[in-house]
Amino acid sequence: MEMMRLAFEKPHLKVVGIGGTLREGSTSLGARRRALVASEDAGAVA
Questions:
Q1: Inter-residue contact 18 to 39 (CB < 8 Å)
Q2: Would you put residue 8 in left (φ > 0), alpha (ψ -120 to 50) or beta?
Q3: Which of 8, 18, 31, 44 could be joined to 39 by an S-S link, Cβ 3.0–4.6 Å?
Q4: In this structure, what DSSP letter does residue 45 have?
Q5: What angle is formed at CA 37 by the lines to CA 6 and CA 39, rounded to 5 degrees?
Q6: Do the Cβ atoms of 18 and 36 come closer than 8 Å?
Q7: pLDDT in tens, 25-44
Q8: Is 5 helix (H, G, I), strand (E, B) or coil?
Q9: Cα–Cα distance between 33 and 16 in angstroms, integer?
Q10: Per-domain residue ranges of the chain
Q11: Helices in the chain by DSSP H: which ranges?
Q12: How buried is 27 (Cβ within 10 angstroms: 0-12 exposed, 13-18 middle, 19+ buried)?
């Protein structure tokens, strides 16, 4: 629980970048899309 409290003390988390290929159908592109959707669902803003 302490780690969750520490994680939410700062209002914004900045993601600099996620590596991988942008080739349609690639696993890294699929993972990136899922990560972005999850981030948005959690309240992330661009």
A1: no
A2: alpha
A3: 44
A4: -
A5: 15
A6: no
A7: 888 889 888 988 988 898 88
A8: helix
A9: 15
A10: 13-46
A11: 2-9, 27-41
A12: exposed
